[in-house]
Description:
By secondary structure, the protein is an alpha/beta fold. It has a single domain, classed as Alpha-Beta Barrel (TIM Barrel). 35% of the residues lie in helices and 16% in strands. The strands form three sheets. An eight-stranded parallel beta barrel has the order 3-4-6-9-10-11-12-13, surrounded by seven helices. The chain has a two-stranded antiparallel ribbon with strand order 1-2. Helix 4 runs parallel beside helix 6 (192-209) and helix 6 runs parallel beside helix 7 (232-244). The longest helix has 20 residues, at 138-157.
Amino acid sequence: MVRHLFSTISIRNVELPNRIVMPPMATSLAAEDGKVTPQLIKHYTLRAQASVGLIIIEHAYVSLQGRVSRRQLGIHSDEVIPGMKELTQSIHSAGGKVCLQISHGGSICSKDLIKAQPLGPSSIKHPAGRDIPKEMSREEIKGVVSEFCKAAERAKEAGFDMIEIHGAHGFLLNQFFSPLTNRRSDEYGGSRSSRLRLSIEIIEGIRSAVDEDFPVLFRLGGDDRMYGGLTVDDAHWAALRLVRCGVDVIDLSGGLGGYDGQGQGYFVYLAEAVKPVVDIPVMISGGIRDPHFANSLIEEGKADLVGIGRALLEDPQWAEKAKAELAILQ
Ligand SMILES: Cc1cc2nc3c(=O)[nH]c(=O)nc-3n(C[C@H](O)[C@H](O)[C@H](O)COP(=O)(O)O)c2cc1C
């Protein structure tokens, strides 16, 4: 089969019509209590109607303790399920496939918002945070694993085709994996495998909580882009472990303090390092705007899925226009 931006791809049993993914992007369109609103449904349905192959809905907090901003989407309680069902039904009616990103902000959560001391792997201020977090006890770690599992179960019940675990951009799982924010001396800190343990426990927990055929994506912060932090070598190392414990797609991103970068495809070097060593689809985002550039990443086998973020925020028709521009391929 000829590979290009508009060739189909399957993630477990879910077939995507093309390789264009709207990566998770927080909109602040949820209600104050984390529920779905009509504006939020409209925002995503518009892109689903215009040929985006997969929509990853913005990060939803797995617990109130993991919430990072006002009007952030939540998947922390059964009460949000009816609204989430309306969202997935609307996207499915538009012919789209939909994934939910589930997250915990850990030490980037602010005390003011969550009305409690933020949690973190160690009592070290996050480079992008405001408050000193509380070092999590083993009991609190187990609690977070269970919150992620319940969130995944709710997402499945609400009709999502798949879920994505947020392990990038300085959020809790990135905080555990990064040597800059994790100084623990127990089984969750120290060596690379100990620092990755929480992510592995969450993936394994989710895998046993949802059906075998429900895809689980992992957004890996593969490069902290800070002195002494995670580097591309850690991305390569971690990807192999994530595949072994049942992840279906590695979605690569980076930045302990934020996801932004310079130029088109600024994280492609991560995909080039990871893709040759894994046998599951690899997704890459970061400054990609030109359909020809996106197509070349697929054609040249550098990635299997391409995230088009801000370009899709600016132009909901980006995928439709890309289809016309690359018409020669279809
Ligand atoms: C407004 C905005 C909100 C974002 N929210 C999230 C988020 O909820 N979860 C996440 O993993 N990344 C988030 N990101 C990062 C994007 O998913 C993406 O990785 C980044 O924007 C780079 O891709 P782009 O250059 O195509 O926009 C956000 C980006 C933007 C611009």
